[in-house]
Amino acid sequence: xxxxxxxxxxxxxxxxxxxxxxxxxxxxxxxxxxxxxxxxxxxxxxxxxxxxxxxxxxxxxxxxxxxxxxxxxxxxxxxxxxxxxxxxxxxxxxxxxxxxxxxxxxxxxxxxxxxxxxxxxxxxxxxxxxxxxxxxxxxxxxxxxxxxxxxxxxxxxxxxxxxxxxxxxxxxxxxxxxxxxxxxxxxxxxxxxxxxxxxxxxxxx
Length: 205
Prior knowledge:
alpha/beta; two-stranded antiparallel sheet; single chain; 205 residues
């Protein structure tokens, strides 16, 4: 990959292993309403989608839906940060990328992204962070990626998007941005990697 001007990261499953955090988080909401903890099928959905979409999926009945949203907003997300694990070599990779190559995040997270970055001393390590709150449509729509392209005044071929889920694949395809699939061989992408060390090699850092 030559002449890459910007590297865009997904958050969950790429920058951080957030599987346990998301399981505990959504199970807490379900159990508050006397429902079983998140199943594997439910987890596969909530791990990729926005919190609004996830709550609607878990609580399809309109009566409980509003109450579930209210309860979610009352929760202190900081208590779930301990379940997150930063991806090894993320910080060294960012140091090698910047300032020559722009760094950005395109995530379906909403109001938890800033707290997450601050907790792990990553605030200030990215030139742009775009959450689902910053665009009209979340992934799998390309809005977040297009916003990043516009901000940096770049063409799609001048960037790469590192993602691990089908919604990442669809968003990248819709934006025309090459996808680097992270630890998911089932995704159709330009290349697959399992570590950020491999990305360094790809980018000749």
